[in-house]
Amino acid sequence: MAKLIVNQEKITDIDALIKICPFGAMENKNGILEINASCRMCKLCVRRGPEGAVVYVEDEVVKVDKSKWKGIAVYVDHVEGDIHPVTFELIGKARELADKVNHPVYCLFMGHDIGHRAEELLHYGVDEVFVYDNEMLKDFRIEPYTAVFEDFVNRVKPSVILVGATTIGRSLAPRVAARFKTGLTADCTVLDIKENTDLVQIRPAFGGNIMAQIVTPNNRPQMATVRYKVMTAPERKAEASGRIIHCSIEENRLKSNINVLSVTKKQKEHGISEAEIIVAAGRGIKSEKDMAMIYELADVLGAEVACTRPLIEAGWLDSKRQIGLSGRTVRPKLIITCGISGAVQFTAGMNNSEYIIAINKDEKAPIFKVAHYGIVGDIYEIIPGLIENIKRVKEA
Amino acid sequence: MNYKKVDFNDIEYLISVCGSDRVFYGENINEDYSHDELGGVKRMPEAVVQVLSTEEVSKIMKYAYENNIPVTPRGSGTGLVGASVPIYGGIMIDLSNMNRILELDEENLTLTVEPGVLLMEIAKFVEEHDLFYPPDPGEKTATIGGNINTNAGGMRAVKYGVTRDYVRGLEVVLPNGEVIQVGGKVVKNSSGYSIKDLIVGSEGTLGIVTKAILRLLPLPKKAVSLLIPFKDLESAIETVPKIIKSKSIPTAIEFMQRAAIVAAEEYLGKKFPDNSSDAYLLLTFDGNSREEIEAAYERVAHICLEEGALDVYISDTQERQEAIWSARGAFLEAIKATTTEMDECDVVVPRNKVAEFVKFTHELEDKFNIRIRSFGHAGDGNLHIYVLRDDLDEETWHKKLNDVMKCMYDRARELSGQVSGEHGIGFAKKPYLKESLNEEYINLMRGIKMAFDPKNILNPGKVCQ
Amino acid sequence: MEILVCIKQVPGTTKVEVDPVTGVLKRDGVDSKMNPYDLYAIETALRIREQRGGRVSVITMGPPQASVVIKEAYMMGVDDGILLSDRRFAGSDVLATSYTLSQGIKKVSNPDLIICGKQTTDGDTAQVGPEIAEYLGIPHVANVRKILEIKDSSIVVEMDMPETVEIAEIKYPCLITVEKDIFQPRLPSFKKKLETRDREVKMFTLQDFEDRDEKSYGLNGSPTKVERIFPPEVNNDRRMLKGNPEELRNKITVKLKELRFI
């Protein structure tokens, strides 16, 4: 039991102490200092108040036996057997963590008709793949998936479980964490492991304005989710290694109050406001037919096409694709501007993009003041070859 | 008018002043320099110089004055009446790179800037110091020099006034190249004619502003907007004089109609918090505490409900403000996107005549069978009315446009209004200005122009000429 | 139909800094507001009520001042509000928060449908919804982007999956978390503010719960510990490259690969 105890006699200036609390959680009730429900347990009053005035006391808690929990497990994220690439990235991370503490790497793969797909995982350096193949696991439904997860954890007792922060992972992992009353840290960007097998988890909060380092010191398993494209996937090895273990679970544990009516491929959403990648064209494009290379570049990157005002006025694109302060402002993860000089009306509409690559002939163009990666060159000489390059990389 | 054409020697001179990197001529001139935001008036300059200092401006002016070459100053080119279009060609002086913030004087609460600093940069800079530059025209990428030259007003004019009220002093290059300082950091000034106030709103015809001392206020800590639905535009706008009479002064009172909201939703691909009503008032209150603002807006909210408002919606967080104001900010572009071409009318009428005027534009819409869209500053009587071409052929369009414009300006005059609230006269609105003012007034203006610019080389053919 | 929406009071801006001396978040002069994502949840609840009738309640955990977000919910049209407030809830992580809310929900109502926002803007974890569902033993669907049908004993929703969209029918009682933009949230109404000025906010403390063991709540009931907080590294890296087209496009390709766009 941890709590704050107030020693009234050690308080010299009650109001000075109250001022220390950033949350307004201390009150002066007729000369008695009281802590109210606004307290966040930040312990600033303990550290900065008069010695002994507020003390933090912690009772002995039962320590978990960490040696009984072994292995780094990865949940295999998939829809109808198609394994989401975040899974391989997590296997890579799991291997790295496991090697530090000499643990095995496990995969948990549940679904229907997935047996042959499990083989693929053996090419990425896992020790054991636990496969639960059952018709009732065909679609993602929360109760049976949680039940299988529970069965796996009880059977294997992994120290750490990594789950991809996909829409499935973000729904499933908290459910499992609550079932085991354990900690789950979402969207970790850095993971490390201490000698005592405590997982060190670093994640952004407050929309990325703050980073927090979080541990789960006295609970097992330790759970974390990680977004796609944060960790690096290992190279696929030609030789398979490790083994597949087929598991079963009583069907009555797979009941669900959810009935999946249909699963359909997501329609690609067209629009620049929410796009993650944008290829933007400007006056550097000499004629309408040359837009073809812009569209092709966008296509190979899975990007949306946007433009500056002159191209709208030329009637080459719909005005909904114009970026500008008074029009649509965008903040994609990546924007590649092609032949855009960077008038302020344009840059003010996109300068919050996470990464800006600008291609322009004129090295004095203002766009280079906002670009992270400024390419001084002719779009006509660069883009066609760039498209070929990207195609090659994607095929490899 | 007989001006000298820019020739090779002139270019050489310009290069000798500014270096070859910042002087453009012939085919190297970017097409943007031939027009402003609305684009109805076009003419390429013969040379463009991107200046960096008062000294450069002074040298170029002196040279142009001696050689009888017309000069047109320009900022971001976001004007709407062709004031920065070089209708006689000549030299264009682009001041947008003179964009340094020179001094923040917290003891006198002034900010000294070069003319090319953008409105949005000023807002951001002073807010970081807990200070406030109140003029808030919708076009945030306009330069302060441009704002000073049109005496722009913006949304907050209801409570805080217009740009002229926030210009303390100017450094000006006269047409003959001489540099003068007008006004200063002083709060009061009764020292003769106020040249400063003449320069403000002169649309680059009397001198070129190369430095400005702006007046600042402490930054109000909070702002809350009210979005108030009404059954129709008339009942919305008729409520405005009652709000003003209540003496709880909002910083802004805007009106908007569903058509503009729907166009903005479509254009931005974002939903507005409410579009179920035909017309809305949008009010903003600022102050230093939630309690202070609440007290002010509650009084107004009650007035609106008494006057038939369907409800009063409160926008008090960043997300809500963005949902509303991003749409408000996109009206112009959104309306533009629904048509092929458009022209605008920026009349200002006494505040209790706004409803009457807007009603009149609806009648014109029917009478001439043409689409007219309006939104604007109900609180200061400044209306932004857009006449849309849609699929009219060139000839019909011009005919109808002229007829509609004439009707609107005539009506504004009958209601004791003025031709322009904040966009200026420039080139496009000259005929309407002439009609609305009597000859003596125009003659006075011409005399002032002559006193500043006897050779008529600075931005000729604008405003009163 | 009984609908319950879980809401939270969060700082008015996410632009917070870490105090380098104390390692505590600086919150001076930071206003608070309702978590913006919760507005979508409230809006969803109100739309369902408009269609099917019933009551919409909100529940929140926080200090006494958090009652202002309940008042705000009233101004949007919510019928009822519950505030769980106790000093012993201090220092709760996701798990303890979820447990406290689930205890509160058990205490006060028996909702057919619980709606949560996608996530909060301070913690960004998106975990509280699913964990409440687990503690209540009811099914949940996260990332709901459309409500397709509201039936007498179930709801049909469209759920966002990594590459697909799943349409699912869930029996009540259940919990859903809704995506941003499922509906445009309405603004608080001044008329409703006048109407609900005297409406009470129900307050509960640990003493009111079924599980009164202090160990389950607050810091004690939180398995995760924050070891430190620190500002993120900023990427101010800017580079200009010149060269022949071949070189340049190869460099862009390498960069795109490095940034994981290809």
Automatic annotation (TrEMBL), chain A:
Keywords: FAD, Flavoprotein. Its cofactor is FAD. GO terms for molecular function: electron transfer activity; flavin adenine dinucleotide binding. InterPro entries: 4Fe4S_Fe-S-bd, DHS-like_NAD/FAD-binding_dom, ETF_a/b_N, ETF_a/FixB, ETF_alpha_N, ETF_asu_C, Rossmann-like_a/b/a_fold. The keyword Membrane does not apply. Belongs to the ETF alpha-subunit/FixB family. This is Electron transfer flavoprotein alpha subunit apoprotein. It comes from Fonticella tunisiensis.
Automatic annotation (TrEMBL), chain B:
It comes from Fonticella tunisiensis. Keywords: FAD, Flavoprotein, Oxidoreductase. The keyword Magnesium does not apply. Its cofactor is FAD. Residues 41-219 form the FAD-binding PCMH-type domain. One of its GO terms (molecular function) is FAD binding. This is Glycolate oxidase.
From TrEMBL, chain C:
CDD domains: ETF_beta. Pfam families: ETF. PANTHER family: ELECTRON TRANSFER FLAVOPROTEIN BETA-SUBUNIT, PROTEIN FIXA. This is Electron transfer flavoprotein small subunit. GO terms for molecular function: electron transfer activity. Residues 22-213 form the Electron transfer flavoprotein alpha/beta-subunit N-terminal domain. SUPFAM superfamilies: Adenine nucleotide alpha hydrolases-like (SSF52402).
